[in-house]
Please model this.
Amino acid sequence: MKQPFFYDITLRDGNQSLKKPWQLSEKQFIFEKLHELNVQAVEVGFPASSHMDFEACKTLADMAWDNLVVSALARAVKSDIDSAIKAIGHSKIPRVHTFLTLSPFHMKYVLNKKPDYCAKVAIEAVEYATKNIKKINKDAQVQFSVEHFGDCIENIDFVVDTLKKIVKAGAYVINLPNTVERTRPATFINLIEKVKNALPEDVIISMHNHNDLGMATATTVEGYFAGAIQLECCLNGLGERAGNTDFAQVAVALHNNGVDVPVNLEKIYETSMIISQMAKVQIYEKAPLIGPEALAHRSGIHQDGAIKTKDMDFGAYRPIKPSLIGRDDDEKIGFTSQSGKTAVFEIINNAGYPITIEEAVRLTPIVKEISEKKGELGTDEILKVYFREILDVKGAFELVSFKLVGGDKFKLGFKFNGELKEVEGSGNGPLDACLDALKNAGFSRKLSFYKQYALDEDKMGAGASAMSVIHLVGKNNEEIIGRAIDQNTARANVKAIFNALNQVYK
Ligand code: KIV
Ligand code: ZN
Model:
């Protein structure tokens, strides 16, 4: 299988569909981006369309990097072809791209010409272009497009016959556009195969698929496997009406299917963002690969799979590693009523707060209920529930005061079911001494784990604070996790103990 040849049409078909076509400086900037992407050919414009486009084509032809094919569009008329040659003939590998329809519908209702007449015009245009561009550069090429090739089902034999003559007249590339997408990809590919099989091996078959029914990527990818190696694509799928085939989708789909794709995939995301801004065409939320939602998971099942496979090349619910196209954001876990415990766990954990999966299970129905009314919940809203349900547990205990006296004496004042108790304890450090005081009051618990975290200042507006996590073991070996936050580290520890006790004494 030959490597795909990426022929970029952003500066021509993409540009011609913009509400405000690009100025020279903008075209220059995008041309550089196409260089970074390492496309093999750039259709720089349609020189006969305006003075500005002629000048742009000329300038970009000067800027061409080694091995780049610089192409310019020309209708099958001498003046257009002359203008294209004038604009890009001096580039390293110039290509004149001329076109004419051979579709029965279009020839009859738009051109009002007979098929034989159109065939003759097309052949003569290719002959003329070949003769004149080769005078300037022996490596120059001519491409012929059958505009509306997708509409040539009933006269495909006539089209094949004409294309044989067009190749003899000098065409190096035969482009078969789906100018308006109307049929199944398979029907279109069938037409491509008919042309491919009828023409000499060395003729390059190209595809240029518009996306009217949303199948342009599929058609282009399948067309490549049917032997059309030149793929005409547009960044962000720009182009007339619903656009042209999306460059990123084709490149990544081929890559994912084992094809050696000769473009710098890691430049795709950044370039797409730039193109969106420059074209003033927003990337829609659900756009494959580059859309803001393309990495978002909201259902519990998907979130679970996504998290379990997040560091793997092959993701349970994603087609690529985001870094493949240079995306530096990761899969996004959003919490809605459709989400589950894994999302609660991830969101709280990612916000820097410790939580166990059992606690996440306990919080899930509570946040789900809130989300049923509000829709997707932000991290802060989920944290509020975490603070209320995990950190601020109401129970029989209420801390009143504590004081460390001397080296290890600990005076503790607390209420138990409203009754004030004042006790003392001692031990190896304040935590130990506090537990000793509680033991003296009849609430004996052993410490099995302790950790204190520093929290960022901005979290819940609490200022710089510490979070203490302690695990207490009861008489029957049952373990309770106590957590508390306070700006005072010693108070965070004592509050964590009370937090644990309140989970037992409700
Ligand atoms: O869509 C189309 O048919 C075209 C041709 C000029 C190639 O853009
Ligand atoms: Zn087009």
Q: What stands out?
A: The pocket of 3-methyl-2-oxobutanoic acid (ligand 1) is lined by residues 13, 99, 145, 147, 175, 177, 179, 208, 210 (CB under 6 Å). The mean pLDDT is 95.
